[in-house]
Design a protein that fits this description.
Length: 483
């Protein structure tokens, strides 16, 4: 058999598996999928285990498997900010999202934009949430596509066909099965990713160094600058981690994943047990250190892990890992596209174009939007330099952090009124764009994550303006409590 055909067969076996599982997901309570709420988050009926895998699929994406080791390859232990921010995220999740779940359950909200519209009685602010959320998700989906490309290209394959087929599968099973497809396939995806990462983190250090301890002894001796965070970088490390933690559960796909929970307490349980996923994240960083020895001198650090795998295992086994990476791309791409589509349908199309839209038409438009969003992200990945997509994703994180007064603060106080909230968000967005432009689109200004400068502007504006306006009465603070 021609050698090139074996990796192709391996890749398409993985695609066939995920396609089968994704389409079979429609059979789970299929009669109930004919509503937007059921299609989007299964009527809020998922238990702690399903939500654990679903949120894991949201947070620990395929691109994470390549980008974090790549950052280690370039910057050493500074990459541990990724581990730090995910750990910081879980207390934020524990405190905020159960309250958001409660109020969303009571008022049947589909998106965070619905919630903001109700709280502030403002279709404009709901549209701001939708536009910022969609802008942040598009490059995020693009990064999943680049993760596929990096793994497929190292196997000697032309990735275009495999990626097109993968995304066609994602579009189709998302349209037919909704969030159920992402939930069921997340089990398959995480099984393979956990198996791959745990195998690699044990095998690679032993095979090349004799053990993990010996590997770090080599790192300390050969790359001492990568073994420590420079004192002058500590503020940047801390603010980047804290700002990233604040942004994570403002992303539409994270909120949508949490909305699937059957109770607020289910979300709290996940906030307690989700840190177990950091075992995987720590293991991934170790692979970045190993790549410094195995494949030194790589210019594109995102290729460090693919090239290390190819050098160690050859094309066939690397194709298996490539199939796992594709699985790790498809699940988050599905949820990101679904949540973005709902923002467009509910908070842009319904609010600004057709207020009398029926639930059936909402579902149809959301499904069309899923396909458009994924195809558009694919086109972006084809015509835009990968470094620009990465930059856009980083900017998306900065921008989405500016939604905190609209989403987080009303969960705990009714003092954030519509006009102060609107002015503060506009001020925060203006501040971050101004700083981004004047720093050459760098995400750091004076050693501090730019997203936090925007938040500081918002806090100042809110403190200055809030006491000039009446408290909110659209939503009672009791609505955020467990029933």
């Amino acid at each position: 058999m021609n050698k090139i055909n074996i990796p192709i067969i391996i890749i398409f076996l993985f695609l066939s598996l995920i396609a089968l599982v994704g389409f079979l997901a429609k059979r789970f309570e299929s009669s109930k999928i004919e509503s937007l709420a059921e299609w989007s988050f299964a009527g809020k009926r998922f238990g702690a285990l399903i939500v654990w895998f679903l949120l894991g699929g949201d947070i620990y994406t395929a691109y994470t498997l390549l980008a974090v080791p790549g950052l280690v390859y370039n910057s050493g232990v500074f990459a541990f900010f990724a581990i730090s921010y995910v750990i910081m995220e879980y207390p934020i999740l524990f405190l905020t999202i159960p309250r958001l779940w409660n109020v969303s359950k009571k008022y049947n909200f589909i998106t965070a934009g619905d919630y903001v519209e109700k709280v502030f009685d403002s279709k404009f602010l709901a549209a701001v949430v939708a536009l910022v959320g969609i802008f942040a998700e598009l490059p995020y989906i693009g990064l999943q596509i680049f993760g596929m490309k990096y793994m497929l290209s190292i196997c000697g394959l032309k990735p275009d066909i495999a990626i097109a087929v993968s995304l066609a599968i994602v579009i189709t099973f998302t349209i037919f099965s909704g969030i159920r497809a992402a939930a069921v396939t997340s089990f398959i995806k995480d099984f393979f990713i956990w198996a791959m990462v745990l195998f690699l983190v044990i095998f690679i250090p032993i095979h090349y160094f004799g053990g993990i301890g010996e590997m770090f002894l080599w790192i300390n001796k050969t790359y001492p600058s990568k073994s420590l965070i420079a004192p002058q970088s500590m503020i940047t490390f801390a603010t980047l981690a804290f700002g990233s933690a604040g942004a994570l559960f403002l992303y539409p796909h994270s909120i949508n994943g949490a909305y699937t929970a059957k109770s607020a307490n289910t979300i709290r349980k996940n906030a307690v047990f989700m840190p177990l996923y950091n075992i995987m994240l720590i293991s991934i960083t170790i692979l970045g250190f190993a790549a410094l020895y195995i494949v030194p001198g790589i210019k594109n650090s995102n290729m460090a892990v693919p090239m290390m795998l190819y050098k160690t295992f050859g094309p066939y086994v690397t194709a298996i890992f490539g199939g796992v990476i594709i699985l790790g791309s498809m699940v988050p791409a599905s949820i990101m596209a679904l949540s973005s589509a709902n923002l467009f349908t509910k908070n842009i199309y319904q609010n600004l174009i057709n207020p009398n839209i029926s639930d059936g038409l909402q579902r149809i438009i959301s499904k069309i939007a899923v396909a458009f969003i994924i195809v558009f992200s694919l086109c972006l990945s084809m015509i835009i330099n990968p470094l620009l997509i990465i930059k856009l994703q980083l900017i998306g994180g900065i921008i989405i952090l500016q939604l905190f007064p609209l989403i987080y603060l009303p969960l705990f106080t009714n003092r954030v009124s519509k006009i102060p909230a609107a002015i503060s968000v506009i001020g925060g967005l203006f501040a971050v764009f101004y700083l981004l432009y004047n720093t050459g689109w760098n995400i750091i200004y004076k050693k501090i994550y730019i997203g936090l400068w925007g938040v500081l502007v918002e806090v100042i504006l809110l403190l200055a303006l809030s006491y000039f306006f009446k408290p909110l009465d659209n939503v009672s603070l009791d609505d955020y409590l467990d029933a």
